[in-house]
Amino acid sequence: MDVNGFVDPKFERVINAFEQNFARYGDIAAQCCVHIGGQPVVDLWKGCKKDAVQMVFSATKGATAACANLLVQRGVLDLDSPVVRYWPEYGQNGKEKTLVRWILSHKAGVLGPDPKLSLDDLSNWSKITDSLAAQRPDWEPGTAYGYHAQSFGWLVGELVRRVDGRSLGNFFADEIARPAKADFWIGFPEVEEHRLLPVFLDNKGFNQDMEASTIDFSSFLGPFLMKASSFNGIIPEIEIAAQDRRCRAVELGSAGGVTNGRGLSRLYGWLLEAFKSGTIADILRPETEGTDIVLSSPAMIVNQFVGRGFMVPPVTWLPRTTRIFGHGGAGGSYGFADPERHIAFGYAMTRLDLRPDPMDDPRFLSLVKAVYDSLE
Questions:
Q1: What is the CATH number of the domain that holds 293?
Q2: What is the residue range of 104's domain?
Q3: What pLDDT does residue 179 have?
Q4: What's the distance, CA 109 to chain centroid?
Q5: For 186, which DSSP code?
Q6: 174: Cβ–Cβ under 8 A, 6 or more apart, which residues?
Q7: How many domains, in total, are found in the chain?
Q8: SS3 assignment, position 327
Q9: Pairing mode, if any, of strands 343-349 and 334-338?
Q10: Which of 175, 289, 307, 372 is the most buried (most CB within 10 A)?
């Protein structure tokens, strides 16, 4: 299979990194796209057609966060107002003083509903949000943070719906995806199913230097992890969810988005233009510190940097430490924007390599470093 697409001659080393991801790291089908100053400088794909799309799991959170931040910028959603200002029913069981800001920064403490619900219930938006409104939080809101792996999409999405009137998926399509010319859906239409690529779980990244027989996997399960990742047992494991149309047909704003590398890059390129400088400065300011109490466990302590719904990690391997905003997805997909250098980046691939931190994936790192080395 040949690499298809184009690169600006200045960025030819990105082709080498992209090919190495197949030769060395076993990629099966993948896409990488980079825009600088709104112009495409890299648009590569291999093992698939140009317009192929796939589930990108938690990279969807970046799209969902974009919706909320657009409403904040327009002055119709206030980060420091209580959630009950927009969603009165949410003020139950100790959540009365929860701030909108805490919803976006994973401090709400509402990881999933206690009532037993099924995968079929995901199509009933009100049933899910009503159950979250009635839910007692797993910790006092605002006192700690932990990754709301699935509930984030409904919590933020309901705020979008209450403020704007449109559903999360429709708001994203109308206000962001179409203006950005991004093939990106939160709620994947059946008519586009012919473009969908299957994904494959090949978990080589988690403790790859250890023999599986010597690992106590229970030590990696913190007290909140299973509830957060499965939405209290409603959403199946990733390889099963990826094969079930219900998980991409509904507006699953945490992990059900469908796009490709080009869609991710176009999204973040558009956000660099749509967000005002003050909005970007606020987004880049981390609102979390210390330990993520969902992802951490006896065997592993995880510290994340979250700014208004986006991951805002410090990129320390650049000549000068900078911050980007974006979001990665389980298995390795990633989209981000670098406001200082006007870079928008998107990478999506079908071989899923689950890691505690998607930025540790050597495939992602090699591509991003090739981009930045080309600029140097």
A1: 3.40.710.10
A2: 4-375
A3: 98
A4: 19
A5: S
A6: 166
A7: 1
A8: strand
A9: antiparallel
A10: 307
39-46 vs 30-36, strand pairing mode: antiparallel
Residue 205, H or E segment = none
Give the torsion sign (CA, 170, 198, 366, 332): positive
C-beta atoms surrounding 316 within 10 Å: 8
CA angle 132, 136, 139 (to 5 degrees): 115
Residue 346: helix, strand or coil by DSSP? strand
For 363, the 3-state DSSP assignment is helix
- For the chain, how are helix, strand and coil distributed in percent, rounded to 5? 40, 15, 45
Q: How far is CA 58 from CA 61, 64, 212, 362, in A?
A: 5, 10, 26, 18
* CA distance linking residue 148 with residue 292, whole number of Å: 10
pLDDT (tens place) for every residue of the chain, 376 residues total: 689 999 999 999 999 999 999 999 999 999 999 999 999 999 999 999 999 999 999 999 999 999 999 999 999 999 999 999 999 999 999 999 999 999 999 999 999 999 889 999 999 999 999 999 999 999 999 999 999 999 999 999 999 999 999 999 999 999 999 999 999 999 999 999 999 999 998 765 544 554 555 555 566 678 888 899 999 989 988 878 888 999 999 999 999 999 999 999 999 999 999 999 999 999 999 999 889 999 998 877 888 999 999 999 888 766 667 889 999 999 999 999 999 999 999 999 999 988 767 778 999 999 999 999 999 7
Q: In 3D, which of 110, 107, 235, 260 has the Cα closest to residue 181?
A: 260
Q: What are phi and psi of 123, to 5 degrees?
A: -80, -10
C-alpha dist (Å) from residue 74 to 79, 279, 370:
12, 10, 36
Residue 52 tokens read as: 């192929």
Residue 218 has what pLDDT?
64
Exposed, middle or buried by CB within 10 Å (0-12, 13-18, 19+), for 8? middle
